[in-house]
Design goal:
By secondary structure, the protein is mostly beta strands. It folds into two domains: 147 residues, Alpha-Beta Horseshoe (Leucine-rich repeat, LRR (right-handed beta-alpha superhelix)), CATH 3.80.10.10; 95 residues, Leucine-rich repeat, LRR (right-handed beta-alpha superhelix) (Alpha-Beta Horseshoe). The chain has a five-stranded parallel beta sheet, with no helix packed on it. A five-stranded parallel beta sheet has the order 13-15-17-19-21, with no helix packed on it.
Length: 262
């Protein structure tokens, strides 16, 4: 099929097997990086990548793509940089997981959903800003990456479980007003040094910030309801935390920290 004919089929694409798209009886096989020529192809969901050895750096996803499909580039060792288009809305489960040489991802502010494990185990990944308009960030989304700085925008009400777990190079975390819940182990075993809790935050889940050896100070705000089990346990250098008197503290919140014994 020619590129011109292909561009006319802009809606209702579905997956056929693992290597082709089909629409109204027409099939398009994804060979090497041919699909990267599909400019002006609105509504396209990329769902199959045939050979990662053929992918170029940087990997530039074309304008018009709205969804990166589940596990599409998972384990593609040749990828070092990814540039995503301003038309993109969703990055599905595991889309770039286990890309061990991926260092930088440019995620546009058009992205509203990053699903579970999207970038998990991208151990070389140091640059990936969270989009300003994001509404959902799934479990394990950036677990075991080398991301250094994270800003959680006001549009994201919930930081899901294990989202940034074991990001040991993560030193700076900013939580904007609007964030309401941080679920279990979201920032467990990170390198966060200080933490300011926004007034909109209501819940800090179990182990949310446990095992953070560099965490020294937490600045709480009024509005927090509950801190669950072991949320800050084993933060051995945590010496300052102005917890409001009306906050419900579950078991072992400050276990094995200097605050436990103060």
């Amino acid at each position: 099929m020619t590129n011109n004919k292909l561009k006319s089929f802009v809606n209702n694409l579905i997956l056929l097997g693992e290597t082709s798209f089909i629409y109204d009886g027409f099939e398009v096989e994804i060979m090497s990086s041919d699909y990267l020529e599909l400019s002006d192809f609105y509504g396209l969901k990329l769902v199959a990548c045939k050979e990662d050895r053929l992918l170029e750096n940087p990997l530039v996803i074309p304008y018009g793509v709205t969804v990166i499909g589940s596990n599409l580039f998972s384990g593609c060792d040749t990828i070092e940089e990814v540039i995503l288009p301003k038309t993109l809305k969703k990055i599905e489960r595991g889309a770039f997981s286990h890309c061990k040489n991926l260092k930088k991802v440019t995620i546009p502010n058009s992205v509203e959903v990053i699903e579970n494990r999207a970038f998990e185990l991208c151990r070389s990944l140091t640059e990936a800003a969270i989009p300003k308009n994001i509404k959902e960030l799934g479990d394990y989304a950036f677990r075991l990456t080398s991301i250094k700085e994270v800003r959680i925008p006001k549009t994201l009400n919930i930081v899901h479980s294990h989202a940034f777990e074991e990001c040991k190079k993560l030193k700076k975390l900013s939580l904007e007003e609007g964030v309401e819940s941080i679920f279990s182990s979201a920032f467990n075993e990170t390198g966060i040094e200080t933490l300011k809790i926004p007034s909109t935050l209501r819940i800090i889940g179990a182990y949310a910030f446990s095992n953070c050896p560099d965490l020294k100070e937490i600045k709480f705000s009024d509005g927090l309801d509950t801190i669950y089990n072991y949320a800050f346990a084993n933060c051995h250098n945590l010496v300052k935390a102005n917890v409001p008197s009306d906050v419900m503290l579950a078991m072992g919140v400050f276990r094995d920290t200097p605050i436990e014994h103060s």
